[in-house]
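Consider one such protein record:
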Amino acid sequence: MSAAGVEWVKSSYSGNNGDCVEVATLPGGGRALRDSKTPDGPALAFGTTEFDAFVRGVAGGGFRRA
């Protein structure tokens, strides 16, 4: 999956402190996530099913900071 040429959107939960997560819809329906501080850096790419599972995991508290 390539995230080249996609439109990135900042999360509505991101504050004004620069620690932002951005998401893009990939061709074919997947999603990509990146850190807005490093737009030319790596992005995580997910298929539709994987992204849905990731979002459910986040919403369910499965990725809490230690």
Summary: The beta strands are 8-10, 21-25, 31-35, 44-46. The first strand starts at residue 8 and ends at 10.
